[in-house]
Amino acid sequence: MSTAAIIPAAGLGLRLGGEAPKAFREVGGESLLVHAVRGLKAATAADLACFVIAVPPGTEDLVSKELMPYCEGARLLVVAGGSERTDSVRLALDLVPYDGIDCILVHDAARSFVPPEVIDRVVAAVRAGAPVAVPVLPVTDTIKRVDEAGRVVDTPDRRTLVAVQTPQGFEPSVLRRAHAGDGTGATDDAMLCERLGVTVQTVEGSEDAFKVTRPRDLLLAEWLLTERRKA
User: Fold this and answer.
1) Which of 27, 178, 181, 209 is surrounded by the fewest CB atoms within 10 Å?
2) Contacts of 83 by beta carbon, 8 Å cutoff, 6+ apart
3) What pLDDT band is residue 21 in, cutting at 50, 70 and 90?
4) What CA–CA distance (Å, rounded) separates 78 from 53?
5) Strand pairing partners for 104?
6) CA distance linking residue 109 with residue 36, whole number of Å
């Protein structure tokens, strides 16, 4: 069996700044989107057979030409994304083949440097029977819940908290059922599955799978890429 990967990359990334959409920003002379695709393909145990990329409308042909050399035999489909992340994933999901795919990954282009072993752990968990698997890291900061006025309500035990990363892995029918419902307010695809009462399994994530959100994250990405090239 094989894996399909969905990458929602239609967002503008306003917090990152710059004129280009976030996924098109470059690190080491290549876009975050290229790095994300290359990283997914490096996870050989995942057996990626199909990439579906949701991009800003009007950039489909440009992205197809840019990514084709990095897909290495996997099918590449590029679709115009929607106004929200959930919309983009749903539009991409409609293009994922039904036959031969036993795991669907949904991955943020902004987490371009996730190590292959993290991807392999996610896929392995789904193939072992988990309907949903997400990579996570322990929370090291003290977290407080506040009310609308900014007053602290309580302090959760951080031992029970984790920070969730991508790629998130799904049994295909579970992801399709999740996206058939209302996606309002969902910040990731696992959250949609939680609303259905589906159990979400966690696997070990990586500090390298950080999300490029602000300008200083680009500096960290440049440093990480330099260190990897030295190695």
Assistant:
1) 181
2) none
3) confident
4) 5
5) 4, 170
6) 6
Q: Give 46's DSSP letter.
A: G
Closest C-alpha to 225, from 32, 85, 41, 64: 32
CA-CA distance, 158 to 137, in Å (whole number)? 11
In this prediction the pTM is 0.94
Distance CA 96, CA 106 (A): 12
Question: Which candidate, 99, 119, 102, places its Cα nearest to that of 174?
Answer: 102
Residue 181 dihedral angles phi and psi, to the nearest 5° = -100, -165
139/70 Cα distance (integer angstroms): 34
- Contact in structure between 104 and 96 (CB atoms under 8 Å): yes
Residues 184-204: tens digit of each pLDDT = 899 999 999 999 999 999 999
Q: Residue 191 has what pLDDT? A: 97
Element of type H or E holding 64 = helix 60-71
Structure tokens at 14: 């306003």
Domains annotated for the chain, with CATH where assigned, are 2-230 (3.90.550.10)
Structure tokens belonging to residue 125: 């968990």
Cα–Cα distances in angstroms (integers) from residue 124 to residues 22, 59, 133, in the given order? 30, 34, 9
Structural tokens at position 162: 């984790």
List of E strands, the chain: 2-8, 26-27, 30-31, 48-55, 75-80, 101-106, 132-138, 145-146, 152-154, 162-164, 168-170, 200-204
**Cβ neighbours of residue 178 closer than 8 Å, sequence gap 6 or more:** 170, 189, 192, 193, 195, 196, 198
